Amino acid sequence: MTNQYPIPVVVNGAAGKMGREVIKAVAGASDMTLLGAIDHNPEVLDKDAGELAGCGTLEVPITNQFEPMLAMAAQERQLGVMVDFTHPSTVYDSVRSAIAYGVRPVVGTTGMSTQQIQDLAEFAEKASTGCLIIPNFSIGMVLLQQAAVQASKYFDHVEIIELHHNQKADAPSGTAVQTAKLLAELGKTYNPPLVKEEEKLAGARGSLAEEGIRIHSVRLPGLIAHQEVIFGAAGQIYTLRHDTSDRACYMPGVLLAIRQVTQLKSLVYGLEKIL
Ligand SMILES: NC(=O)C1=CN([C@@H]2O[C@H](COP(=O)(O)OP(=O)(O)OC[C@H]3O[C@@H](n4cnc5c(N)ncnc54)[C@H](OP(=O)(O)O)[C@@H]3O)[C@@H](O)[C@H]2O)C=CC1
Ligand SMILES: O=C(O)C1=N[C@H](C(=O)O)C[C@H](O)C1
């Protein structure tokens, strides 16, 4: 069913690396309208969101008034959507508030705990409100994860390396955590130890995620977002790798999520569920 009116979209974290990209994408989508752009960075307050994003004037000034913006979105004829690319420390509260206002969250911000996601799922269920939490919006990563699940049927040894720019707040990445979870869901324990290991430097063997899977996090300027899943067996290594070179790669997934979340009545986690 097509919507009669454009979907009103509020972007939280509008001045950030992802927020600016989302503003460009929403401005270019004929079935969406940018209703609001929120950011708490005082340097961008009142600046035009479109100019900041580099897509021309949109006459949407950046505001730090989060709740009034949600209230405005809730009054639109068409269900409002809040896209959140902010920070792990605030995303839980923002998503809860959006659901309370009846505004549908599309969440790209990573770093929430399993408990926080579970709480939000229960809250969205009670409110019969759609919510999408997507640790990675790129189609390439969905394909990598599917290939990893396939490979894990045949390999008992696997480690994950995720590599990101050095402005990233959370480690390991939300995508690496999700990848480990997908492999763990197959019900087997990986990497049975052959020797008693001793870390001579704490953290040398990375972090231990679910079912024996280790995640190693690299942070360097010059990187954007990259992930390797390395399977090992006697006499062979099978490596899956995904590299991003531009944050535009996430935008088809973000626009799809904005369209899909208005049709949902509960929380859904992961891009693969809406493809
Ligand atoms: N799901 C996916 O596919 C992807 C997810 N991400 C995730 O998205 C999140 C954001 O990434 P990125 O854009 O690179 O980060 P940035 O730091 O570039 O952008 C975040 C923006 O949000 C602002 N901000 C932080 N907290 C608040 C708040 N409470 N209210 C309003 N504005 C706020 C920041 O302001 P200030 O700088 O002043 O604090 C900044 O302008 C991260 O968690 C990252 O891991 C990133 C890429 C893809
Ligand atoms: O901070 C980033 O940049 C990214 N964060 C997400 C994550 O933590 O998985 C998605 C992607 O890796 C880029």
Automatic annotation (TrEMBL):
The active site is at residues 164, 168. Residues 140-275 form the Dihydrodipicolinate reductase C-terminal domain. It is found in: Cytoplasm. Keywords: Amino-acid biosynthesis, Cytoplasm, Diaminopimelate biosynthesis, Lysine biosynthesis, NAD, NADP, Oxidoreductase. Residues 7-137 form the Dihydrodipicolinate reductase N-terminal domain. It comes from the Bacteria. CDD domains: DHDPR_N. Pathway: Amino-acid biosynthesis; L-lysine biosynthesis via DAP pathway; (S)-tetrahydrodipicolinate from L-aspartate: step 4/4. (S)-2,3,4,5-tetrahydrodipicolinate binds at residues 165, 174-175. This is 4-hydroxy-tetrahydrodipicolinate reductase. Homotetramer. GO terms for molecular function: 4-hydroxy-tetrahydrodipicolinate reductase. Belongs to the DapB family. Its EC number is 1.17.1.8. Pfam families: DapB_C (PF05173), DapB_N (PF01113). HAMAP family: DapB. PANTHER family: 4-HYDROXY-TETRAHYDRODIPICOLINATE REDUCTASE 1, CHLOROPLASTIC-RELATED, DIHYDRODIPICOLINATE REDUCTASE. Catalyzes the conversion of 4-hydroxy-tetrahydrodipicolinate (HTPA) to tetrahydrodipicolinate. It is an enzyme of class 1 (oxidoreductase). NAD(+) binds at residues 13-18, 108-110. It catalyses: (S)-2,3,4,5-tetrahydrodipicolinate + NAD(+) + H2O = (2S,4S)-4-hydroxy-2,3,4,5-tetrahydrodipicolinate + NADH + H(+); (S)-2,3,4,5-tetrahydrodipicolinate + NADP(+) + H2O = (2S,4S)-4-hydroxy-2,3,4,5-tetrahydrodipicolinate + NADPH + H(+).
